[in-house]
Amino acid sequence: MKITDALLGEHGLFRNLLQSVERLRSESHDLIELRTAAAILDNALATHSDIEETVFFQALEPHIGDAGPLAVMRAEHEELDRYVSEMRDSEDVDYVKTVLRDLVALARSHFQGAISRRKRPFSFPSPRKY
């Protein structure tokens, strides 16, 4: 199996996970429940990011450089980590729900290949050819 196939397969699972977290975020006012959902999402995102950064990006970097799409995706990984950290430190349920909403939106944007919240598309060559 190619790494691109595995990563794309994970994207399908993430769509379902993000929908579940989004639904919980809109229905729950329990801080522990919200933080648990964030921790589960964080665990899955961390594993996925590690694979992207250590295998996928390393394979693409010699062909497309470390700027452009790879820099954007690395920045998104850092921002996702920051969101999780912010939730961990807050006791304010409304703030946690807001950050969780932003985390889900950024993760969804990342998986759809958007450059940032501004959603300006970038040119990304097909990784399957590398």
How would you summarize what this structure contains?
With 130 residues, this protein is mainly alpha-helical. The protein contains four helices and no strands. It has one domain: Four Helix Bundle (Hemerythrin (Met), subunit A) (Up-down Bundle), CATH 1.20.120.
Structural overview:
The protein is an all-alpha fold. The protein has a single domain, classed as Four Helix Bundle (Hemerythrin (Met), subunit A) (Up-down Bundle), CATH 1.20.120. It is built from four helices and no strands. The longest helix is centred in the middle third of the chain and has 34 residues. The protein is elongated. About 8% of the residues have low confidence.
Percent of residues in helices: over 70%
Low-confidence stretches: 114-124
Which H/E pattern describes the elements? HHHH
Determine the structural class based on helices, strands and strand pairing.
Answer: mainly alpha
The gyration radius over C-alpha positions equals 15 Å
The main pleated sheet reads as: none
Strand content: under 5%
